[in-house]
């Protein structure tokens, strides 16, 4: 049985060095096959779901959008330098409120991706310790193959 190369590769980025490694791995998988890579950033809206009454959630959301924009600009540079076809997507209205993994999977599926690449450790820090990693949740929910990329030993 002949294997078919992936043609639409989705990479979840968050600006971390591990997501940069995931992006580099996606570029390697795309190789000379002509695959298109989607660099995807989902704004974490979990913090704005809580109404504490003493802060303006729009300021936090604006900071997350700016962070996502910077992460996608960096990804665009890396993808452009590699000479691969690519798109970027900033998801500001997640499909599943407060669920980064669900929103990553929904966006990847909607785009028609056939491979999802994600780093094992990103910028979710304390939340990861409490709720489990985004990568783990992506794997559990995904309907397409997922390629996990580990960070360097100093990041883990």
From TrEMBL:
Domain called UspA: residue spans: 6-150
Pfam families: Usp
Family that this chain belongs to: Belongs to the universal stress protein A family.
Protein name: Universal stress protein, UspA family
Organism, scientific name: Cupriavidus metallidurans (strain ATCC 43123 / DSM 2839 / NBRC 102507 / CH34) (Ralstonia metallidurans)
Organism ancestry: Bacteria, Pseudomonadati, Pseudomonadota, Betaproteobacteria, Burkholderiales
Gene name as annotated: uspA8
């Amino acid at each position: 049985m002949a294997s078919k190369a992936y043609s639409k590769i989705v990479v979840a980025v968050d600006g971390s060095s591990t997501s940069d490694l995931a992006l580099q791995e996606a570029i390697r998988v795309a190789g000379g096959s002509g695959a298109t890579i989607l660099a995807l950033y989902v704004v974490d809206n979990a913090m704005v779901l809580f109404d504490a009454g003493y802060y303006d959630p729009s300021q936090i959301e604006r900071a997350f959008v700016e962070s996502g924009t910077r992460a996608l600009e960096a990804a665009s540079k890396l993808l452009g330098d590699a000479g691969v076809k690519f798109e970027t997507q900033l998801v500001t209205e997640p499909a599943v409120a407060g669920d980064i993994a669900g929103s990553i999977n929904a966006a990847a599926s909607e785009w028609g991706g056939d491979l999802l690449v994600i780093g094992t450790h990103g910028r979710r820090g304390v939340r990861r310790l409490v709720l489990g990693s985004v990568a783990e949740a992506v794997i559990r929910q995904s309907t397409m193959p997922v390629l996990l990329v580990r960070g360097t030993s100093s990041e883990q």
